Amino acid sequence: MNVLPLSDGERVMAVIPTRDFSEGKYLAFATANGLVKKTEFIKYNTPIRADGIIAIKIRDDDELIVVRGVDKDDEVLITSRAGLTVRFAESDARSMGRSTSGVKGTDVGEKGEVIAMDIARDDMDLLVITDNGYGKRTQVREYRKTKRGAKGVKTIALTEAKGGLAGALVVKEHQDLIFISREGMVQRTAVSGINSCEVLFIA
């Protein structure tokens, strides 16, 4: 068994499978404070030391949330815990080197944070889930394209009963979903069973 050595406080954030670094053009990174960075995938095809190589430079008050493969002409969706989603072209974020922090992807305000990033596909849906198990599925095409750095549009109306937004994912209607709570409980639900117009309780 191979072990990845991590420093105190570090944790694994993403696993990107690859054979020859030709499957995608870029890796896109999103941080809690709303920064986004795009780097050519091939730049990671380099000898890696035992303790790894720098993938992104993280500022002291920030943390990495998600990494996705991005191709030329893709569009990106970034969703914040406040229930807002911004959609912009990948070309809005220029390609940078590995040891950089990135640029503003979305405006999360003073106390907001990013919880998800995915690739926009107009034939798919954006599923959002709240802390207390409420879910909503909305067609990706309903999210208008804006500019990088915008606050975004409301994807779900949050209340105290629903809690904050916990996750967001682009899905297809025929797929099944596995939900895992912090207590380790698992629930399986069909995407088609989550209403595309209304918010409903799923957990």
Outline:
This protein has strands spanning 26-31, 35-40, 64-70, 75-80, 84-89, 103-104, 114-119, 125-130, 134-139, 153-154, 165-171, 176-180, 186-190, 200-201. With 203 residues, it is mainly β.
Order of helices and strands: EEEEEEEEEEEEEE
Radius of gyration: 17 Å
- Quick check: average pLDDT? 85
Q: State which percent range the strand residues make up.
A: 35-45%
Please tally the helical runs, counting DSSP H or I stretches of 4 or more residues: 0
Kindly report the spatial arrangement of strands forming the biggest sheet: 3-1-2-6
Share in helix: under 10%
Number of strands: 14
* Termini Cα gap: 36 Å
Structure description:
With 203 residues, this protein is mainly β. It contains no helices and 14 strands. The protein has strands spanning 26-31, 35-40, 64-70, 75-80, 84-89, 103-104, 114-119, 125-130, 134-139, 153-154, 165-171, 176-180, 186-190, 200-201. It has a 4-stranded antiparallel β-sheet, with no helix packed on it. A 4-stranded antiparallel β-sheet has the order 7-4-5-10, with no helix packed on it. It is globular and about 45 Å long.
